[in-house]
Amino acid sequence: MGNEQNTGKCPVMHGGNTAAGSSNMDWWPEALNLDILHQHDRKTNPMGEDFDYREAVKNLDFDALKKDMQALMTDSQEWWPADWGHYGGLMIRMAWHAAGTYRIADGRGGGGTGNQRFAPINSWPDNASLDKSRRLLWPLKKKYGNQVSWADLIVLAGNEAYESMGLKTFGFSFGREDIWHPEKDIYWGAEKEWLAPSDERYGDVGKPDTMENPLAAVQMGLIYVNPEGVNGQPDPLKTGEQVRETFARMAMDDEETAALTAGGHTVGKCHGNGDAEALGPEPEAADVEEQGFGWKNPNMKGKAANAVTSGIEGAWTTHPTKFDMGYFDLLFGHEWELKKSPAGANQWEPVNMKEEDKPVDASDPSIRHNPIMTDADMAMKMDPKYREICKKFMADPEYFKDCFARAWFKLIHRDLGPKSRYIGPEAPSEDLIWQDPVPAGNTDYCEEVVKERIAESGLSIGEMVTTAWDSARTFRGSDMRGGANGARIRLAPQKDWEGNEPERLAKVLKVYEQISSETGASVADVIVLAGSVGIEKAAKAAGHDIRVPFLKGRGDTTDEMTDAASFEYLEPLADGFRNWQKKDYIVKPEEMLLDRAQLMGLTAPEMTVLIGGMRMLGTNHGGNKHGVFSNREGQLTNDFFVNLTDMGNTWKPVGNNLYEIRDRKTDQVKWTASRIDLVFGSHSILRSYAEVYAQDDNQEKFMKDFIKAWTKVMNADRFDLEMLQQ
């Protein structure tokens, strides 16, 4: 009987099947999810703690890899035949779709991590068949091993494809480090189905600027816009407005957008020669025998011309393996009409084109087909601004090629960070404003003299620490932008941000600029060093003599070296570390804290110790006292944690994001708090960290951990140190 009852029961825990298991977030969906601070743990990385890719890649035989990559382009494989015997179009699409996920609002996405290998991106509808392009690269990855990352290899393939088809590229840098697990920190949209109508992410789909932030693509599973038109309905003028907004959210202006559209569609083709419904499931849904491949095409029959991806079918130009001016010749040299592809997709085809001007079949050179244009291509002709730019390109082909080469370089390097991070013989020497250049800083000054001048300045501990924090907190590990280096907090737009308290900031900077001019230290160094002085004074007031580590050499940038418009996106709308947010938002304050902590590269324990320390240093925005659970403000103590966890207290909501901490016996108000403060006592994981720092024997640990986390924030953007160590 017992055996019968057990028949068919699974003998293992169901946690291996993520679809069947229930996570804590399934049970408590409103709980604060700390996973974004725990991702990419060493446990997921097979390379070991001693491996440094950015050092390993310097030993790569760059010329040999480049030669092998060029040879790969025309080495058509029977299992996945190349269009016209050339993989260039496929490789460009792979690199483009890796880099093109970047968005400027939060710096996330892009090709800098090799995340195209993992879900969800590896299975987006827009990435159909890119599983084949990555598998075509495997022999090169296998050969060069640890000296080249997948992230570099994927992007390099697109660059080399363009060179193999005749474009002189602007250059290339190595240095992208692979991740080994899907990214959990990127919000791709709230839709529950692929290619859901774009209305779901717009306030008004007719007004592209109402797209939900920080999103850039118009639909779930797309890189940019729907090639058939807004929600699949052709209308080039409406599509043009979506293109403009989408590319702007990817840090591109109109000229760059037009150049990228034309240059991207000068080579390669769309694939829709067949029944899209016949394709197998995407890679993440395919069974084990597919070995990571998806979208199995039962009608491929060994012919490149039978491939189906977007559903649109055809090449844009007469010679799709050659980088030339053919895109403009065809787009502006012919009238176009709406047609249907074999897969049923909307596409534009020319009216009465000469047979010799048509591109040949991707598999059979004896057959010619009409070229095609997408709705976005037609926008380049019909949108007045794009049309004017394209006419300029047509009048000066060399100018177009240079514009495209630069825009392509920006696309594939936007998230790599400043030029000081570039590696390899083809890294260009020219300074580009979007790289946020910072001049080298002076190191020939006496640190102790500067510290004495700061200590004697009359500035408070809070003013010193706050200014250093506000300068450094702009750093985004997502695209290596922001940070204290450059002292851009002195310049527009940062000097006027509400979160930086402009009046207080101006007062402090006036003092620092005087110290800088008298000592030779950059203002950037003075700002950070003053934060150290403030912390050391607070520690001494608490009875501890400590020294905060400091590294000289930050430079001071200028207005001319700053793309002020792009820095607007770095403005903090909330900073839980200073107990401030600009206004009420749909998301909870503690969720906004996690977002900022992750962008700054902080772990959950580092976030915790920084909150506790900064509450004691008088850094709250506007001098508010929320979370200052102590009568010893200005002393670096663990009082925040001690009193947060004290069971002699009660906690009472008294307003929107406002709470009172009362004495349990007398009911007298002792302190006030925000949600940010109280979450460190209410969230089970965060409370476990808070209890560590509240222990009687961990005052010294608290101080050491705070200084270590603080120093990490101050040096997060010191990419120049890598150069100095070479």
Defining key terms:
726 residues, single chain, disordered N terminus
Strand order within the widest beta sheet: 7-8-9
Termini Cα gap: 73 Å
Structural class: mainly alpha
The poorly predicted ranges are 1-5
Beta fraction: under 5%
What gyration radius follows from the Cα positions, in whole Å?
Answer: 28 Å
Please count the helical segments: 26
Proportion of helical residues: 25-40%
Largest sheet geometry: 3 strands, antiparallel
Number of strands: 9
**3D shape:** elongated
What's the rounded overall pLDDT mean?
A: 95
What does this structure look like?
The chain has 726 residues and is mainly α. It is 38% helix and 5% strand. It has helices spanning 2-6, 24-27, 35-38, 53-56, 62-73, 88-99, 130-144, 150-164, 236-248, 254-264, 326-333, 375-382, 384-395, 397-413, 447-455, 461-472, 502-519, 523-541, 564-567, 589-599, 604-616, 639-644, 675-682, 684-694, 699-714, 720-725; strands at 269-270, 314-315, 336-340, 346-350, 574-575, 580-581, 649-655, 658-663, 669-673. It has a three-stranded antiparallel sheet with strand order 7-8-9. Strands 1-2 form a two-stranded antiparallel ribbon. A two-stranded antiparallel ribbon has the order 3-4. Helix 10 (254-264) crosses helix 14, helix 12 crosses helix 13 (384-395) and helix 13 crosses helix 14 (397-413). The protein is elongated, with a radius of gyration of 28 Å. The N and C termini lie far apart (73 Å). The relative contact order is 0.09.
